[in-house]
Design goal:
The protein is of the alpha/beta class and about 240 residues long. The chain contains nine helices and seven strands; from the N terminus they run E-H-E-H-E-H-E-H-H-E-H-E-H-E-H-H. Helix 7 links the parallel strand 6 and strand 7.
Amino acid sequence: MRRTLIVGATSAIAEATARIFAEAGDALFLVARNADRLAATAEDLRQRGASAVHTETLDVLEYERHQSVLDAAVAALGGLDLALIAHGTLPDQKACEASFELTRKAFEINALSTISLLTHLARYFEKKEQGTIAVISSVAGDRGRQSNYVYGAAKGAVTLFLQGLRHRLHGSGVKVLTIKPGFVDTPMTSAFDKGVLWTTPGKVAERIGRKLNSISDEVYAPAYWWLIMKVVRSIPERLFKRLSL
């Protein structure tokens, strides 16, 4: 039985991943902002076979509560084997261009809150000398593009932070996994036209489940995004800035 903490547990990808964990009999501690949705998610996971499900409401910008929520998860489950951080929002790029306050809030939610949680989790797992920290970042963090560079910059900060954390924790027996989804059909992207590159939360969840016990450090979901982003990163800046991406 694995003891698993999920932050952002009511997000589409987190819910799909939690179902896989529940069906494997994991004991779960779910954290999210909306109490009603959190309760419904918890009941669904109990029905799917989770050995235990505990919940805690949290606005991730309540930094002062991050340690106490982690402590509650450890106490409820008797320790942690896995932590999955899966919260985030997709800001309006044009609105952010006109407002630093909106840009700051986007960074707070998508980067700084995650970095705060990771700082607490890293201390816990480093002392324990085992376990896995998995974080949902994004392919958007691989290169800045005019269409979503505020979101991309926040996710890029998370990706780089995870690289350093992975380096720090390598000798302690703690695995740090960066998950980079591409285009995923979720409520957050409901206004977007969908094409052949889009996938579902369930398929991303399946890939996460497969890679948690692998030697992978970074996982693109679906896998073809590794090649797409390799090409995108290879385009010289003098040419890239002329493209409408």
